[in-house]
């Protein structure tokens, strides 16, 4: 037997060995943001593995904020790394991923089963680029006990909130109790900080991909927050406060009101909370006679375009985005469902009764601008909000800066 | 066929030295080239190629978020840069950090080195305390000092209040935030200066000081006439390294302020990182990086010239 024959025999056997899928396991790796219950997602994956023999799914986590995770994933995806098959993406990112060609599109997927906002957020230029993982929105948390003590109803406008905060502060005489905690640090949350009162005046930032910036509404929005700082409703160092700082301050009992996402609720009811049973949650207030606006959050599942297991990864994502999993994650992980019917599910309402009122908030929440250059839009808004709150820039100059810089990005 | 070539090689070997030993006969010049080749190839691959590639990319409009292929635009990225207020602000911040922290670290480092060179009975605690700030990763130092300067929980404000002053909201004001960053950088980098200067100090022969004592020169005169002139080479080396790392300042302001409030404490390196990693605008980010590279080269050239004239 000469060398050539030996080589061809070897090649033939190896082709046989690799073409027998019955014996080969598919190993999938999914990226889950560490702040969104990776241990509860693990239980969902265990169920999936049990139902699909031969498929193993490993979770990778990293970074503790949306920005840190985006930087990590940007690096992995720019390098065309095949390691990650499925990615959990913040609702603001699918447009960027689609433009960069980093996610594979889902063909013939009926998106009408989801809440309309999530069908929209995951559809870019008519293509379904990701499927919803869970919903989220910003809420107003308030100290039920303190409002009852002073006979105040939960505020419907920001003006009522300021008056309520002042009344409680005068009565309590506690220098450590601040009126309102919100996000003033230059992080993603500060984008929503700006947009909440801006939207409340009936204005939009972007319509049909075109910038529709309203200078006066922006000044009013920035001025609202700056006045809260100047009049003592919010504390002087609010420009240092990030999302989880707000959560910790309210949880420690040092704020009457707090603007935060839904994840905070579970913490407020936890063993380490100083305010268990004293917390109310409601829609965010409106500005004057405007509408009550909230910021749409939530995360999505995308399949990496560089994954070598496209079909298996898509099958997994279809499962993770199904109504059953949405109900399970709501009941076990307090993540808001992306299916309208799930908000009335008994299992969900037994675990998290306040979800009954959350549907209306999620349904009316507004999405942040959908653009592939969202990171730049975000950077402009959050650094300006931060500068205004620190007193470095006036609300007027801040609004002009946002307008000038957004014009260059959204040409 | 393989067999025949082996046989040929064997018969060649009978006639003279085997082919693989022929390099032994190379001249000095050729031998030098051969011996340098591995290092030169490695450096070319990991330094020269990326730098050239960076320069090449800087002439393209290449943004991963645009969904468009790379397009040659000549010097457009550079002309955009000149009109970009954030570029000028971050460059100015970088220069200011360099101008403040390099002399600052030199002075503190020199003092620390002189202190460590004193004839202590036990040397290791002094040496260890010099090494620790140097060995600490930059981002850890940034995180630790961000806590030190925190307006509510920070130790700095706690001390200020106990001393009867009013606490400062450090990261709420561009000037205080800048001061906090510079203090942190000086703390972090002066030990590196001290280590290099300490090594220089130990090469100065004791006999010079003994002779100066005999001639009646005081401590201060000895420092300026003996210590400082003989330390100059070490100081220049330390300054080159420190200045270049100062121009590349990233970690400490990134961890402490994230560039805030607004963009008032953002550095050029942070702006490059933001444009490439976060905005995925590789063309513009490359052009910014080319500017930083040129800046570092200029500074190095100035220092190298300073050394050469001394020799």
Fraction of helical residues of chain A: 40-55%
Name the pair of protein chains with the most residues at their interface, and give those residue counts. A-B, 30 and 24 residues
Q: How much strand of chain A?
A: 5-15%
- How big is the Rg of chain A? 24 Å
Oligomer category? heterodimer
Question: Which structural class should the secondary elements of chain A be placed in?
Answer: alpha/beta
Instruction: Tell me the structural class of chain B.
Output: mainly alpha
Order of the strands making up the biggest sheet of chain A: 2-1-3-13-6
Main sheet specs of chain A: 5 strands, mixed
Describe this protein's structure.
The complex is a heterodimer of chains A (411) and B (311). Chain A is α/β, with parallel strands linked by helices. Chain A has helices at residues 3-18, 38-51, 66-78, 94-100, 116-121, 144-149, 158-172, 188-200, 215-230, 243-251, 263-268, 310-320, 323-333, 346-351, 355-364, 374-389, 395-409; strands at residues 26-31, 55-60, 86-90, 123-124, 127-128, 131-134, 138-143, 178-181, 206-207, 210-211, 255-261, 279-282, 299-303. In chain A, helix 16 (374-389) runs antiparallel to helix 17 (395-409). The longest helix of chain A has 16 residues, at 3-18. Chain B is built from 13 helices and 2 strands. Chain B has helices at 2-15, 28-57, 76-82, 85-116, 124-135, 138-148, 155-162, 174-201, 206-214, 219-247, 251-256, 268-278, 282-310; strands at residues 60-61, 71-72. In chain B, strands 1-2 form a two-stranded antiparallel ribbon. Mean pLDDT of chain B is 88; it is low at 9-13.
């Amino acid at each position: 037997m000469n060398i050539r024959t030996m080589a061809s025999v070897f090649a033939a056997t190896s082709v046989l060995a690799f073409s027998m899928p019955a014996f080969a396991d598919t190993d999938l790796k999914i990226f889950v943001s560490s702040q969104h219950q990776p241990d509860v997602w693990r239980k969902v994956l265990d169920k999936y593995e049990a139902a699909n023999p031969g498929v193993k799914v490993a979770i990778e986590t990293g970074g503790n904020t949306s920005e840190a995770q985006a930087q990590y994933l940007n690096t992995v995806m720019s390098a065309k790394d095949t390691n990650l098959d499925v990615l959990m993406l913040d609702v603001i990112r699918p447009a960027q991923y689609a433009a960069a060609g980093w996610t594979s599109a889902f063909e013939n997927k009926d998106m009408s089963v989801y809440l309309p906002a999530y069908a929209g957020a995951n559809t870019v230029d008519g293509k379904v680029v990701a499927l919803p993982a869970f919903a989220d929105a910003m809420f107003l948390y308030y100290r039920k006990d303190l409002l009852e003590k002073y006979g105040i109803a939960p505020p419907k406008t920001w003006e009522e909130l300021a008056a309520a905060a002042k009344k409680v502060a005068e009565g309590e005489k506690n220098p450590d109790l601040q009126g309102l905690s919100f996000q003033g640090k230059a992080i993603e949350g500060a984008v929503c900080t700006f947009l909440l009162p801006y939207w409340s005046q009936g204005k939009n930032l972007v319509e049909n991909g075109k910038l529709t910036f309203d200078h006066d509404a922006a000044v009013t929005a920035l001025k609202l927050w700056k006045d809260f700082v100047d009049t003592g409703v919010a504390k002087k160092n609010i420009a240092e406060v990030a999302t989880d700082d707000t959560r910790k301050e309210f949880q420690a009992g040092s704020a009457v009101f707090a603007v935060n996402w839904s994840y905070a609720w579970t913490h407020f009811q936890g063993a380490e909370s100083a305010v268990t049973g004293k917390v109310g949650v409601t829609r965010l207030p409106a500005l004057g006679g405007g509408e009550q606006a909230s910021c749409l959050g939530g995360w999505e599942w995308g399949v990496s375009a560089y994954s070598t297991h496209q079909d298996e990864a898509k099958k997994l994502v279809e499962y993770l985005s199904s109504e059953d999993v949405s109900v399970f994650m709501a009941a076990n992980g307090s993540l808001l469902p992306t299916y309208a019917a799930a908000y009335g599910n008994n299992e969900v309402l037994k675990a998290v009764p306040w979800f009954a009122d959350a549907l209306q908030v999620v349904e009316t929440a507004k999405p942040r601008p959908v653009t592939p250059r969202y990171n730049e839009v975000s950077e402009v808004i959050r650094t300006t909000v931060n500068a205004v709150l620190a007193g470095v820039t006036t609300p007027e100059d801040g609004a002009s800066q946002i307008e000038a810089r957004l014009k260059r990005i959204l040409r | 066929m393989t067999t025949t070539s082996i046989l040929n090689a064997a018969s060649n070997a009978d006639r003279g030295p085997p082919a693989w030993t022929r390099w032994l006969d190379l001249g000095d010049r050729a031998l030098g080239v051969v011996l340098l080749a591995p290092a030169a190839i490695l450096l070319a691959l990991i330094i020269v190629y990326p730098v050239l590639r960076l320069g090449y990319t800087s002439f393209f409009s290449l943004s991963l978020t645009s969904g468009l292929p790379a397009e040659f635009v000549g010097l457009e990225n550079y002309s955009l840069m000149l009109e970009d207020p954030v570029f000028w602000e971050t460059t100015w911040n970088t220069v200011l950090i360099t101008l403040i922290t390099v002399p600052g670290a030199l002075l503190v480092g020199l003092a620390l080195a002189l202190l460590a060179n004193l004839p202590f009975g036990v040397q290791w605690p002094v040496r260890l305390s010099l090494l620790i700030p140097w060995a600490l990763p930059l981002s850890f130092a940034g995180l630790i000092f961000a806590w030190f300067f925190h307006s509510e929980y920070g130790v700095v404000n706690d001390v200020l209040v106990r001393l009867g002053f009013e606490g400062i909201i450090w990261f709420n004001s561009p000037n205080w935030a800048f001061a906090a960053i510079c203090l942190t950088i000086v703390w972090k980098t002066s030990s590196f200066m001290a280590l290099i200067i300490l090594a220089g100090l130990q090469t100065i022969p004791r006999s010079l000081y003994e002779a100066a004592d005999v001639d009646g020169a005081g401590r201060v005169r000895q420092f300026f006439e003996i210590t400082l002139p003989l330390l100059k080479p070490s100081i220049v080396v330390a300054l080159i390294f420190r200045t270049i790392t100062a121009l590349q300042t990233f970690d400490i302001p990134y961890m402490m302020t994230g560039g805030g409030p607004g963009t008032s404490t953002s550095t050029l390196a942070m702006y490059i990182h933001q444009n490439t990693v976060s905005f995925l605008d590789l063309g513009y980010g490359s052009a910014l990086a080319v500017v930083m590279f040129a800046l570092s080269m200029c500074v190095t050239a100035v220092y190298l010239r300073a050394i050469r004239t001394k020799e």
